[in-house]
Write a structure and sequence with these properties.
Number of helices: 11
Strand order of the largest sheet: 1-2-3-4-5-6-7
Number of strands: 13
Shape: globular
Structural class: alpha/beta
Bound molecules: zinc ion
Largest sheet: 7 strands, mixed
Length: 304
């Protein structure tokens, strides 16, 4: 089975889980400290890739994991994880304790954005997780990684109201989930990721401003990878979110599909001006879920 694993400082592994069978779309992380932890599991369909990568590293048992938020591209495989590792437990926002033992409601809510058919085919169905395998997080909670190393859970809403980021002070790495946005590997700019119903600019900017004050060497994104210019990327994310909101605010009265197309065209033109190559532009345009972005921004602006 295909694998792409990169080892960073202080035993941090970046694992490509080949979301939608494509490379560079979703990364999970494994901190191989004295008391190790997995960060994110990825969608259901990616679970075999995650397991084969962990096993290739000689990791045959994972005792615990931490999830950034309740979106299915991050937690879809959670039922598989607790089924495979019997004593496994998962740190997650408290809403996870409500939804994950009976994920039907979560599935239905996400289906309304993506359609059920798309979800089943591309991410796969979610299995229930027994409540005993779940632990709710508190803001600033310290998860023990052994030998004095701690992972701090920082509540960070804005992208989703159930979002945590995880800060490893020892390696100065911040595991961002989707708080920052998308970077399809190059590390030069961030593409906003602003889904309904929770995207809120002020809330997200408060989160990003708080994270900016941390002592950072790396940011680790879910989509995608570890980057070495954290402060520049946080500033760029905020600038681009402002530009997107401004663009949507100034759109004439268009249907949702027309607005989606306008955003895609405007963005591709901007990327060309920035000198981005066509392959990278296609990667963003084909994987940006622009309809969802329009819906998220319009909901935030109360013009949906
Ligand atoms: Zn995501």
């Amino acid at each position: 089975m295909k694998q792409d694993i990169i080892k960073y400082d202080e035993n941090i592994y970046q694992i490509d889980v080949f979301m939608e069978n494509k490379p560079g779309r979703m990364s999970c992380y494994y901190i191989d400290s004295t008391n190790p932890i997995l960060i994110e599991v990825g969608p259901s369909n990616s679970f075999p890739y995650l397991i084969s990568s962990l096993e290739s590293l000689g990791i045959n048992e994972v005792k615990r994991s931490a999830m950034t938020h309740l979106h299915l591209d991050h937690i879809g495989g959670i039922g598989h994880l607790v089924e495979k590792y019997k004593e496994h437990f998962v740190y997650i926002h408290e809403l996870g304790l409500k939804h994950l033992p009976n994920p039907e409601k979560l599935w239905k809510a996400v289906s309304e954005v993506y359609t059920e058919e798309w979800l089943s085919t591309n991410w796969g169905e979610i299995k229930p997780t027994p409540i005993n395998n779940l632990r709710s997080l508190k803001d600033k909670e310290l998860i023990d990684l052994g030998n004095g190393r701690k992972l701090e859970a920082i509540y960070g809403p804005g992208h989703a109201k159930h979002h945590y980021t995880f800060y490893d002070e020892y390696s100065k790495t911040l595991f961002m989930g989707d708080t920052l946005g998308l970077i399809y590997p190059h590390g030069n700019f961030v593409q906003p990721n602003l889904p309904p119903p929770d995207f809120n600019k002020e809330v997200l900017f408060n989160t990003l401003d708080e994270l900016y004050t941390l002592d950072l060497k790396y940011v680790a994104l879910a989509h995608y990878g570890i980057h070495k210019n954290p402060y520049q990327l946080i500033i760029n994310a905020k600038e681009n979110i402002e530009l997107w909101i401004d663009f949507v605010t100034k759109l004439p009265n268009l249907s949702i599909n027309e607005a989606t197309e306008s955003l895609q065209i405007w963005l591709s033109e901007n990327y060309r001006i920035l000198g981005v190559d066509e392959e990278t532009i296609n990667n963003y345009v084909n994987n940006g879920n622009f309809k969802m972005q329009i819906q998220g921004i319009k909901k935030y602006l109360h013009i949906d």
